[in-house]
Amino acid sequence: MAKMGLDRHTLLVAAAELADASGLDSLTLAALAQKLNVRSPSLYNHVNGLPDLRAALTVYCLHLLVEKTRDAVIGKSGDDAILSLCDAYLQFARSRPGLYEAFYKVNTQEHEDLEAVKAELLNLFLRILEPYGLGEKETLHAIRGLRSFLHGFATLEQHGGFQMDLQVDESLHYVLKTFLKGMHAESTS
Amino acid sequence: MAKMGLDRHTLLVAAAELADASGLDSLTLAALAQKLNVRSPSLYNHVNGLPDLRAALTVYCLHLLVEKTRDAVIGKSGDDAILSLCDAYLQFARSRPGLYEAFYKVNTQEHEDLEAVKAELLNLFLRILEPYGLGEKETLHAIRGLRSFLHGFATLEQHGGFQMDLQVDESLHYVLKTFLKGMHAESTS
DNA sequence: GTATTATAACTAATGATATTAGTTAAAGCA
DNA sequence: TGCTTTAACTAATATCATTAGTTATAATAC
Predict the structure, then answer these.
(1) How many domains does chain A fold into?
(2) Partner of A144 at 20 to 30 A CA spacing, among A7, A180, B128, B149?
(3) Is residue B127 part of a domain?
(4) CATH code for the domain in which residue A115 is found
């Protein structure tokens, strides 16, 4: 009965890999246990059942997403920063499809960490939209718009929603530029 | 052993109700059978297992969505039509939360019906964007943008993604108007 | 260094689920 | 009325998640 030295973070990393490989839905404790060379009840020493594991994946996903997007806007501002953030967002969703599925699952557990990382993401958007000089409300509306668009785009793309023969990245940039054009018109009117 | 007169459509309707009541994830054949006063193996006479049922729900969801949105744009054109379509889209997502979860599940089955209803939705968008005089490519980009935004907005709203103290419908309209403003600028430049 | 304690692994067992195979009786049709 | 189809059934299996109770290893106290 060797001690495998597992801990919560090791579980998360392995679980995310499983999700990426075959979808979040088919992430089971049985499969995770097998991957880690352990019997499934042993996982309960580190994780409070499957719902807890999935909630933890949501937080883990948000952590990585914040990391990537924050990196992407360093040294940029204005439209450049927004475009760069959005590109990074979608690259992340594409590179971690199973983990990204956990993005909105948001079950109750892990409340402190979840709120913290959500606030980080919000702040990133707030700072990027600062130079546009929108009012407070308008800024929040715009953030909701960008978040919705990015999440919808990532989800639809991942599930084969864009089947027309048309570059996906072109669509991304067309939409963002159109939205930004509208925002510029807004701030000057 | 009374024959219950079940058929595929009855199953779909009942399954969608269960999904709305407690989430698509907790839609089980066991629960569905219980709701229909039948043992779960009996369901296999009408449905090819759980994956098939979920795929059928996707098609059913798209059917209803097309119905609602098509209704919403009758007698309208231009920005009015778009705003009305978007309102109807979100109202549908809100009124059928569990069914809407099936929106993008899109497992392989039911191919003919699925493609047909997806084409209907695409055509609805195409006709509404006609008057804007965008090029063919730009129109498709714009459709991807609207679909992504609507899907992301509906999903985030449903999963508690908008927690700031700010009217959700205001955000919806702000974003749409901003995007339309950008589109108008586009077509005149 | 030894004894104690905490804990990370284990086995065994339960209950829910999906699914398949094979059976029966009701409904539709010749 | 008899035949056929089929929609229900029962029985059985396999996969899961989860809980309870056990054991041996690692960490700590003395």
Answers:
(1) 1
(2) B128
(3) yes
(4) 1.10.357.10
Q: Is residue B48 part of a domain?
A: no
Q: Which nucleotide is nearest to B28 (CA to C1')?
A: C17
Smallest CA–CA distance from B152 into chain A, residue:
A152
Phi, psi of A104 (to 5 degrees): -110, 5
Q: Using the beta-carbon criterion (under 8 Å), do A185 and B181 form an inter-chain contact? A: yes
pLDDT digits (tens, 9 = 90+) for A83-112: 999 999 999 999 999 999 999 876 666 688
Q: What are the b/e assignments for A88-112, b being 16+ CB within 10 Å?
A: bbbebbeebbbbbbbbbebeebbee
What share of chain B has pLDDT > 70, as a percent?
A: 95
Whether the beta carbon of A25 falls within 7 A of nucleic chain D: the reply is no
Residue B4, exposed/middle/buried by CB under 10 A (0-12, 13-18, 19+)?
A: exposed
Residue B42 beta carbon within 7 A of nucleic strand D = yes
Residues of B in contact with A180 (CB under 8 A): 182
Weakly modelled stretches of chain B, pLDDT under 70? 1, 106-110, 186-189
The pLDDT score that the predictor gives to residue B112 is 85
With an 8 Å Cβ cutoff, is B149 touching chain A? yes
Which nucleotide comes closest to B53 if you measure CA to C1'?
C18
